[in-house]
Amino acid sequence: MRGAVPRLSLTLLAAESGARLCAIIHYLVRGQLGWFGLTIACLVPGYAAQLLSILWFRADGHAPGCWLLALHLLQLGLWKRYWDVLRAEAGGGAGEVLAQLGDVCVLRLLEALLQTLPHLLLQAYVVVAVDPAGFIPGVSAGLSLLSLAWALVSYSHFTCLLKPGHLSPPAAVILCLLLWRTGMLGTRVLALVLFARLYSFWVFAVAGVHWLLMSFWLGAQQTDIVAQPCRWRLFNCLLGAVYIFCYINVRPGPSRTRVAVFYAVSTWNVLCSTWM
């Protein structure tokens, strides 16, 4: 199962990128320049993951040449990293494979949250509120949802490999995780899109309240992933925004209580949205 994860990740990344390109062309051909510009704008945050990838290459002692910089400029840096993982599996040691897989899983999760998630929200809104019969935006939204869910699952898979024994979860567990992540993300995105269709900019007030609650809650947990106070606060704020859509465990040990709190706050948020 370990070797199948990077292959499936690369396949979904290619499918998502192809569907996004089709959506861009679709809006351009139909003269929908507003949606075309917004879809292009969703690509910009993804450069944060590309920049971090270049910095990690440099930290590992690989001075990035022109071709590597060009790949990252075209947002193909993660494709190259997945290719390196596949080559390392063919002839490298387990430690090297695990290190490279960890880098690309973290980078892919960052890219998915910064780039795929905004694209998913945009295309879902287009399908629900603007063009319900739009096939290409619908396919792009569906593949973005699946790709984002898989990025979360592959990150969880990597954290399992870090545990003593390097045990890879069975395929049935991976499938259950994928279904859970897809369902959780899909319902959250659909709820926000429907709310935005009915109440317009009030959706930002609801999302903002959820973001503040999650950020303060993360701060109360005293996570020690980031040591410096300013960066620690920024990390909690960024992760609080992620918690609007999904739960990511950032502390070792059992997480049932934290997951229960997350779902309680999410349910309260949905009820408040309904009453509005």
Automatic annotation (TrEMBL):
Annotated localization: Cell membrane; Membrane
Ranges that cross the membrane: 33-57, 124-152, 172-194, 201-220, 232-250
Membrane topology annotation: Multi-pass membrane protein
Keyword Lyase applies: no
Gene Ontology CC annotations of this record: plasma membrane
Major localization listed first in the record, in broad terms: membrane
Keyword Membrane: yes
Keywords assigned: Cell membrane, Membrane, Transmembrane, Transmembrane helix
Pfam short name (any one): XK-related
Family from the record: Belongs to the XK family.
Protein name: XK-related protein
